[in-house]
Amino acid sequence: MSLLNVQSEITELKKVLLHRPGGELENLTPKWLKSLLFDDIPWLDKAREEHDAFAQIFRDAGVEVLYLADLVQESLDQDPKIKEQFIEQFIKEANITSETMKKVIFKYLMDIESTKDMVETTMSGIRKVDVPNFVKRTLSDYIRDYPFITDPMPNLYFTRDPFSVIGQGVSLSKMYSITRSRETLYGEYIFKYHPLYSKDIELYYDRTQNATIEGGDILVLSDTVLAVGVSQRTHPAAIERLAKNIFYQYKTNFKTVLAFDIPKKRAFMHLDTVFTQVDFDKFLVHNDLEKTMKAYAVTKATQGDHKLKVVPIEDKLDKILSKYLNKKITLIPCGGDDQVAGDREQWNDGANTIVIRPGEVIVYERNHITNDILESLGVKVHKMPSSELSRGRGGPRCMSMPFNRE
Ligand SMILES: NC(=[NH2+])NCCC[C@H](N)C(=O)O
Q1: What is the enclosing helix (H) or strand (E) of 401?
Q2: Where can this protein be found (predicted)?
């Protein structure tokens, strides 16, 4: 039986996957910031302190915290061949063109004694100055003032996106941006080789598909209903493929995929930046969501082999959720009614909370207006420090991937 189990956004969280930020953040520089999807450079030591506080909130609430680099290390240490294969694939995807350089980097990584250090090196990026006796060989070695042989992956601490646990299976993302594409390699090795987490795993999507989908767009509303954002990052064709796989190929319990078409822009980058559940009957939303979104219900077609039926939904968001979740739903606007506070706090992921148990969430401390509103509605709010981590434009939900909920 699969050790993964996520049938909801809000029931008691048992196990969660995080990534403690590492050297990849120190490899951010203003020149490449935009293409690396950061708005500023977090101070690594402080970012780690904040992240450790985040992890401690989970532990204090009885949640087991897993770390990405540990799971990858445990997967690669199953067999020296797996480790070699991983390094080869990493090099291939890092776009190293020179055959000699490929060999140099292979040896460089193989020579790192601990597998975990090796994995962290692949994450933080390898600079030309890191490699002993680096010799310029290719034209680009000579011409470009580019410091890296392999690029850093600074977005790894957003464990929500490269894969997503759905029910007892996994959707391994095909990422939208070049900079995040290699992040899914780690998930591939975990779900193929990890002694615990590769057992009986159903793969509902995989990284070799063409159409892009990212975990931040996927919300497991119940054991029968998924919500998926059609966003800057997730293409409708990917949602249809996912739906066919969960409806037909794997015959899961899921009956409906609600597709929410949202604006294709950075402030709305994933559905979970504008919309998260906080309790059985409460959702946090960005003020502008209702005005700008359009919902569709995707179900099995009654006729035709492996066909889908897509129906536009005209109802308002609370009505749609009430219908599919079978209860009256309250929408809580991020930042309240004030447009300025709403826009500001949403930009700092005020609408992006992770639920520990129904009505108990982790939030960024800085979003004080939204946090006060949540508290006034009886939601238990754990505030985490958030000066540095928020510079990557992701909040507590983006930084966590539940492996198991009650
Ligand atoms: N699930 C999320 N909302 N993730 C936020 C990811 C932020 C990251 N800098 C990116 O642009 O990809």
Answers
A1: strand 401-405
A2: Cytoplasm
| Residue ranges matching CATH 1.10.3930.10 in the chain | 69-150
Q: What is the pLDDT of residue 350?
A: 95
- Global confidence as pTM: 0.96
| Structural contact between residues 220 and 7, judged by C-beta atoms closer than 8 angstroms | yes
Q: Show the ligand 1 pocket: residues with CB < 6 angstroms.
A: 37, 155, 158, 160-161, 180, 216, 269-270, 272-273, 392-394, 398
Q: What percent of the chain has pLDDT over 90?
A: 90
**From CA 357, how far away is CA 14, in angstroms rounded?**
9
Residue nearest atom 11 of ligand 1, based on CA coordinates: 37
Domain 69-150: which CATH class? mainly alpha
Indicate the length of the chain as a whole number.
406
Q: Do the interacting molecules here have an ipTM over 0.95?
A: yes
Q: What are phi and psi of 124, to 5 degrees?
A: -80, -15
CATH for 47-67+154-405, options being 3.75.10.10, 3.40.50.300, 1.10.1060.10, 3.20.20.380: 3.75.10.10
Q: Which of 171, 180, 269 to mutate to test the pocket of ligand 1 (most atoms within 8 A of CB)?
A: 269
